[in-house]
Amino acid sequence: MSQNLEAVIFDLDGVITDTAEYHFLAWRSLAESLGITFTREQNELLKGISRMESLELILDLAGKSLDYGNDEKLELSERKNGYYLELIRTITPNDILPGIEKLLKELKDHKIKIGLASASKNAFQVIKSLELNDYFNYIVNAAEVKNGKPDPEIFRTAADMLQVSYENCVGVEDAVAGVTAIKAANMFAIGIGSMGALKQADVIYQDTADLTFARLIDHFKNSKTK
Fold first, then answer.
1. 184: Cβ contacts below 8 Å, ≥ 6 apart
2. Separation of alpha carbons 73 and 52, rounded Å
3. Which phi and psi (to 5°) does residue 111 adopt?
4. Residues 11, 95, 134, 218: which is the catalytic one?
5. What is the C-alpha R_g of the chain?
6. Separation between Cα atoms, residue 194 and residue 25, nearest integer Å
7. Is residue 160 within 8 Å of 62, Cβ to Cβ?
8. What pLDDT was estimated at residue 1?
9. What is the pLDDT of residue 48?
10. How many of the other CB atoms lie within 10 Å of CB of 167?
11. Tens of pLDDT along the chain (226 residues)?
């Protein structure tokens, strides 16, 4: 078994850029149109899960899940997406989180493959707006993934398409469901955020600026010598 790092697979929201505020505003607009109050605290429950799962959760919180059929829920999810797309039109490379582009550049320079495993169906558009397309060897199309996080499918799909072994991958996530998915995929997990919430991760940084190429390599190598 090789002990060399072959690929790093990133989540998008909260790791590459922070579109969480746009998602919250879009969900709140939809909720208000349905007569539902949706708070920032409730929004935390949506981290790392798919659009349809998020919609179901919001409707459940209001006791309205049974008020809508499948076709109506699909229309509601598309309406939310329309609100979101309007908001993310303003995204530019200035919205890349601290240290991330430097890390991507160093990974590419060292010929380490780079993947994106995001639950967002707008990941391609966001990466294009951030002008980061050239760094990614593969971006998983969330619409083609059957099982959302915490299922490992999306991370395994990225590794399969990159043609690398799971145990030689690092996954970077800011959500509990995402970290769970990385570990279930038999990959090394780096968490960005709260140490308490992301305790399942192998290593945790509060901020992306602290995650450097040298540190990432050291963490991975140390994990192989234990």
1. 150, 151, 152
2. 8
3. 60, 35
4. 11
5. 18
6. 23
7. no
8. 39
9. 75
10. 16
11. 347 999 999 999 999 999 888 999 999 999 999 999 999 999 988 987 889 999 999 999 999 999 999 999 999 999 999 999 999 888 999 999 999 999 999 999 999 999 999 988 889 999 999 999 999 999 999 888 999 999 999 999 999 999 999 999 999 999 999 999 999 999 999 999 988 889 999 999 999 999 999 999 999 999 988 6
Q: Which of 151, 74, 145, 159 is nearest to 116 (CA)?
A: 159
As given in the structure block, the two tokens for residue 26 are: 């879009």
Residue 90: CB partners within 8 Å, gap ≥ 6?
Answer: none
Helices and strands of the chain, counted as H and E runs: 9, 6
Distance of alpha carbon 77 from the chain centroid: 19
Phi, psi angles (nearest 5°) of residue 221? -65, -40
Q: Rounded to whole angstroms, what are the CA distances from 98 to 8, 20, 175?
A: 17, 16, 18
Q: Whats the size of the chain, residue-wise?
A: 226
Q: How far apart are CA 155 and CA 162, in angstroms?
A: 11
Query: Which tokens go with 98?
Result: 């601290």
Residue 60 designated active-site: no
Annotated catalytic residue 13: yes
Q: How far apart are CA 221 and CA 226, in angstroms?
A: 9
Structure tokens at 21: 């505020």
pTM, two decimals, is 0.84
Q: Which amino acid belongs to residue 11?
A: D
